[in-house]
Amino acid sequence: MTDLAKLYQTDYAVWAERNAELLRARRFDELDIEHLLEELSDMSKSDRRELHSRLLVLLAHLLKWEYQYARLSERWREFDGRSWRSTIVEQREQLAGLLRQSPGLQSALDGAIAEAYPAAVRLTCKETQLPVSLFPDACPYSRAQIFDDDFYPVTS
Fold it and tell me: Where along the chain do its domains lie?
C-alpha cells in the first residue's frame, strides 16, 4: 500500500488535496487511482440517489395536488395546499440546483423520472389512502411540466 493510499484511510481531506496537487502537476503515475475511481463512482451514485429522492418527493406532491387536493379542500375549507406548494417549490429549486452542479445528470433525467414515478405512486397511496388504480401507470407529467415553476396539475 502506498503512502497516499494509507493517507486515504487516515486523513481524507489531506489525501484529496494531495491528489489534486498531483493532478495539477500532471504527475499521474503518483495518483492513488484505486481510491480516486472509488470516490468518483460514489459521487455519481450520490448525485443519482439525490436526483431520485427529490423526484420522488416532487412527483408524489404533484400527484397529491392532482388527486387529493379537491377532496381535502371540499372537506376542510381552511385547506389551501400551502405546505404541498412549498414542498413542490422547494423540490423544484433543489433539483434545478442539482442539475446545475451536475449537468451530466440531464442525460439520466428521463430514466430517473420513469424510475421515481412508481415509488411516488406508492408513497402517495400510503400517505393518502387513495387506491393505486386511481393513478396512471406511467408518469402523466412531462419533463417540462415537472420543472415548470408555474405548473400545478388540474385537480381531479
Answer: 46-147
Predicted local confidence at residue 135, as pLDDT: 97
131-150 pLDDT tens trace: 999 999 999 999 999 999 99
The position carrying cell 411516488 is: 120
87 touches 80 (CB < 8 A): no
Instruction: Tell me if 67 sits within 8 A of 128, measured CB to CB.
Output: yes
For 2, residues 6+ apart whose C-beta sits below 8 A from its C-beta are 32
The tens digit of pLDDT for each residue in 75-115 reads: 665 666 788 899 999 999 999 999 999 998 999 999 999 99
The secondary structure of 48-102 as a DSSP string is HHHHHHHHHHHHHHHHHHHHTHHHHHHH-TT---HHHHHHHHHHHHHHHHHHHH-
Number of residues that make up the chain: 156
